[in-house]
Amino acid sequence: MTREFFITNDMIRLSSRQSPTTCPVGLALKAEGVEVHEVGYNFISCAYLGREFLIPLPSACFEFLRRHDSGESVEPISFSITFLEEAPRPLPARFAPKPMPKAPPLPVHHGVHPFVATALSTLKRIVKKSPVTVSAAETVHCN
C-alpha cells in the first residue's frame, strides 16, 4: 500500500533540526497515524497498522532534510512511501544462520580453575607421548 504524505509550513515551523523523530518528515508521518521511531538521512524506522517497518528514505526527503538541518529555508513538499502488505518471506535455507557447534566439556578438577584444568590435561597428554627417563637421583627428564 502506497501512502502520500505532506510536509506543511506549520510542520516546518514546529519541527526540530537534526531530530530523529520531530523533523518535518517525522511530523508528516505522525500526522497520518504512523508511529515514528527514527528518521535518518537513509531510512525511516516506524510502525504502521500494527507492523514494524524499515523504509528507505525517499530521495525528495533526503535533500529536504539536508537543507532543513543545515538551516537553509525549505518549502513544503509531498512524498510517497510504500508499506509492504505481505508478510516477509523466510530466508532460503542456504542463508539461514548455522547453529554454533557445542564446545567440548572441560575436565572437572576440584579446586582448580577450568582453564588451568585444561592446560593440565593437555600437559598430561604430552607427557604420555614423550619418552621419559628417570636418573639415579630420581630426576625426571623428558627427551
How does the SSE layout of this entry go?
Elements: E1 2-7, H1 9-14, H2 24-31, E2 35-39, E3 43-48, E4 51-56, H3 59-69, E5 77-82, H4 114-129, E6 132-134, E7 140-142
Antiparallel strand pairs: 1-5, 2-3, 3-4, 6-7
Question: Which labels suit this protein?
Answer:
143 residues, 7 strands, two-stranded antiparallel ribbon, 29% helix, alpha+beta, elongated
What does this 3D model show about the protein?
β3 and β4 form a beta hairpin. The C terminus is likely disordered. This protein folds into two domains: 85 residues, no CATH class; 37 residues, no CATH class. The protein is an alpha+beta fold and 143 residues long. Helix content is 29%, strand content 24%. The chain is built from four helices and seven strands. The strands form three sheets. A three-stranded antiparallel sheet has the order 2-3-4, covered by helices on one side. A two-stranded antiparallel ribbon has the order 1-5.
What is the gist of this entry?
The protein has 143 residues and is an alpha+beta fold. Helix content is 29%, strand content 24%. The strands form three sheets. A three-stranded antiparallel β-sheet has the order 2-3-4, with helices on one face. A two-stranded antiparallel ribbon has the order 1-5. Strands 6-7 form a two-stranded antiparallel ribbon.
